Amino acid sequence: MTSLLVTNIGELVTWDDDRPVIRDAALVVEHGQVTWIGDRTAAPDADSVHDVGGAAVIPGFVDSHTHLVFAGDRAAEFEARMSGRPYEAGGIRTTVAATRAATDEQLAANVARHLALMRAQGTTTVEIKSGYGLTVRDEARSLAIARQATEETTFLGAHVVPDPSTGSGTEAEVGAYVELVIGAMLEACAPYARWIDVFCEEGAFGADEARTVLEAGMAAGLQARVHANQLGPGPGVQVAASVGAAAADHCTYLDDADVAALADSGVVAGLLPGVEFSTRSPYPDARRLIDAGVTVALATDCNPGSSYTSSMPFCIALAVREMGMTPLEALWSATRGGAFSLRRDDLGHLAVGAKADLVVLDAPSHVHLAYRPGVPLATVLAI
Question: What is the pTM of this model?
Fold first, then answer.
């Protein structure tokens, strides 16, 4: 088969500039790419036909922020949080210990299991970070495992200081660990990574350390991302803007200068509502960002500590219910916005020339993703 006509589409979300949403539509796929879109009645012939029976078709979800290389879980921490204990970055070290103890085969099997769950919910592209090894060996093997599953791999050696004497570590301990991250660890990890990230937050790394890590990664050929402004106001967004990062993710606590920096720099604001759901924290104000002209992406932040969900539809529902987004805006952010966060023009849309990542909904409209939360509506069309 060289060409496939997907027809009888009740609502086709393309994100094409001229017709972002087409009703009673069809599209043609050849060799994994979209080659034609338009009205069903004008569709050309193709070698094979697939009739979706009036269902909605959307681009595959682009999950631009996950931490899938890990072992164990932190259900006890979640239970304690639901009983009133606040979320703290130090809980990451619990997962670090479990991940270090796991074999490569165990870690790879866990990644594969989560990817299967994601694909079953409509996700076709996933970014995967390291960050639960925090030694040269464990960070490198984490990224090697992630690279088997995706091209979008991120070196997050600067997640937390792994073994501090107290709290987040003394100034000397933080400085020594940063030197390890930008030295031997970066050298070992760069061959497996496209991105470099840093947790710029109270309890993790400050602005100077974050900038040092990002600039070293960029000098090694990696592109920058930042965990920013999650736990409180901080310098993360400004650091991201100053180095030209692709994305500043979390963005829960922003002042007017942060919003302006995102809008002016073009840094994508990655919003991760599963975190706020799981930690009982305030949700980011997506409406404020969109109205200011900031590009917004939605992602799961799938990890065992602060957001153990693999469901992009769930995040869409939270964004609509809690963050001031319309259903169409939330879908854009979960598809095209995620692609912009990864600086990928071939993903997250179904215009001519795009990768044919098609998701068929068991529903007539994209609105049902938020309207029917928790219902398995999305199926990736096998092509």
Answer: 0.96
